[in-house]
Structures are given as structure tokens and as C-alpha cells.
Sequence to fold (266 residues):
Amino acid sequence: MTAPATGLQAAIFDVDGVLVDSPHEKAWRDSLRELLESDWSDIRDRTTWSPEAFTARVYDEQLSGKPRLAGARAALEYFHIPDDEEEHRLFEYAERKQEMVVRLIEAGDFTAYPDALRFIIAVKDAGLRVAAASSSKNADLFLRQIRLDSFAQEQGISSETLAPGLTLLDYFDVNVSGRDFAHGKPDPEMFLTAAHELGVEPEHAIVMEDAAAGVQAAKAGGMGAIGIARKDDAELLAAAGADIVVNSLDQVDMAALAHGRLAAKS
Fold:
């Protein structure tokens, strides 16, 4: 089944929260706790931080989908953590988080979402080109550890697009993850670059996102957006402008997608 030339021609995937259940939230939270309980303990009483205050909601609304330094700055500002003019704490926090997340990834402390892997195989089988577009510089670490051929075999999926030894990283036609773009989400620069390198016009691309900033970026770029509410945040994604919001990519109507429409199964 091939996508019509005037319909959807490409699918662009965020990585963290869409394709993998990543340890980024844990790394952001735990690295800040370590700093405020040790090296930064002298300023702790001047902040609004507490271990209980750094909730999943705070991560989703303040940090999710942002580049590393932007995420660190958002957390410091949210918890009113003072920094000096050279922003030493900003860089120290970003570096501590990076070291922690790499350790977690290398230890295999993440899982791939089966619905997302089934979906990416299905859209590529439908003739769409696919791209990875994550602000995380760790995206490739995740993607190269996921054996898509093994997953398909376990799921009983037969596809001509899969070859022995194929990783999820190999499966993408384009990968713009981790690049140093001038503007991060909700700016559409990353997604527009992915569409350009895929050779499609933005209006013929859809973006899969779990963060409101990512949905906003897709819509700002003139693309379709599927919001994936894995954290009970459907209202947040809908408010950001998602064309449809699903709890799982298994809920996307593939027959409608093949005709260029975004719809959830009834």
C-alpha cells in the first residue's frame, strides 16, 4: 500500500516518550536532588525546590522536549535556584544530568514502546518516509540498542522493510536528532529540517509527539501532529494543537492515514 502523492508522505518521530520510555525525567530529577543535597546545599533554603516538588507534571510542562541547556535553565528558573552571571550552576546541572542519563541508557534502563514500533513499521510499509527528530543528543544511543528485526519476529510481523540485524536507528531515512539548531521546540526548525531532508513539503508530513512544545512546533511548521498522551496529559496536548490525541499509536486509524487523514479508531 503506497501513500497517495498528494497525501501524507512522511512521518517524523520524537524519540523520548514517543519511541522509548527514556530515563531523562529520572536523570533531571535525581541530578538536581544530588546537587542541592551536596554541592549546592548552601543555597537550598533560598529555593522553592524539594524532592516532592519535582513532579512528573513539572517535567512534562517545563523540561520535556527541550534541548539540554534549555531544560536545565527551565528547571532552575522554576525552582528559583539562583545562578551567577557566568551561569556556572546551569552548566554544572546540565553536565551532571548528561552523565547520569548516559549511565542509565548504557545500563539498559529504558524500554521501547511496542505500539510505537508497530506503528513505525506500518507507516513505512504504507510508503511513507520516516525521520527521527529529537532535541536529545542521546537519541542515537537509544535507537541503536533497539533491534527492530527481533521485535518484528516476536510480534509475528512480516515486512519487506525489515532486514536481519536491523536496528531502529538504521530504519530511519533521515535522523536530525541531537543537532545544534538555533531554536528549540516550540520553534519548528528541527521538524522543518527533517521534512526538507526527507524531500517532502511540510504539509505532507505528520509529527508524533508526547510533549506540548513538540506539538506546537509541528503545527507552527504547518505539519500534522499526533499527540501521544502516555502520562494522562491528553488535555495538554489537545490544547497545544494536536490534530488527534491517542493514548497509544495502536489507536491511530491506518486506513484513514493511507488516505491522508488523521483519525483515531472509533
User: Anything to note?
Assistant: Residues 88-106 form the longest helix (19 residues).
